[in-house]
Specification:
Number of domains: 1
InterPro entries: TRIC_channel
Oligomer: single chain
Number of helices: 11
Number of strands: 2
Helix content: over 70%
Order of helices and strands: HEEHHHHHHHHHH
Distance between the termini: 58 Å
Keywords: Ion channel, Ion transport, Membrane, Potassium, Potassium channel, Potassium transport, Transmembrane, Transmembrane helix, Transport
Membrane topology: Multi-pass membrane protein
Transmembrane segments: 57-80, 92-113
Largest sheet: 2 strands, antiparallel
Family: Belongs to the TMEM38 family.
Length: 268
Amino acid sequence: METTLTNQLVDIVFGLSDTAIEVPALGLRIPILELLHAILINYTYRTALKQSHAEIGWAQGLLATVVMSAGGGSTSALLLGNPLGILKSNRFWGIYGATYWLMFSNPYFYQFLQYLFAIPMMEQLFTAADGILRTSAVVNGGVLAVANNKDLGDDKWVAKIICGALSGCGGGLWTDAFRLSSAQWSFSTPRLLRTASVDMKASFMTALFYTAATTPALCEWFDLPILGPKEAQAWSAVVLSGGLIYRTYVTRWQQKKLELPEEEKKDQ
């Protein structure tokens, strides 16, 4: 039963990761998960700006969304002395740049997304895509990047967990530190360092789980079955996506709590 479930999970996670829109005329292949992630990042950024979206410059907004999208993996790469992944991918700039342009060049695309995200479970669908992509960053840009680093190696468990966790939530850390989701940027101590966010906790648990599940010695300590790389990544995607989806509900509950006093004041 466990083997069957794991195999099905591997097929789903990696099947979604491989799904893409083919554009033969242009010779393009656009991965669905990357497109959904780009839309989610830009929509979240545009929503956070509220009315101040008209005050930001094009370069400022693009840089903010790039940090939000790839800040985690880039932070891990810098720590390990590796080239930034976004510099090795023309596709990244095409997908995220085009999505950013659509979001801020006219009001209609954002209004359409507002309608789309109002549909039940739609936000969770985009968030699940975000979770699968982040898991790939945790695994490839964090844990495996440490294992393949000649100066570190496969036995550096702490480095794996740190770089893996940063790959999953580093973008949010930089966004919070420099207030990138506002029109005026300023540096201050990241609030996430005082109170860990759901993203940080989920990313940390994902890095810890993957490292433990693929390391025989750690499996013995945590009493876990040893998993292959694909199996461990698939279950890690469940852990991270589950945490991020939970965050969407928490955020919604908090918003409703804030709206209730305002409605009561209006009634009075």
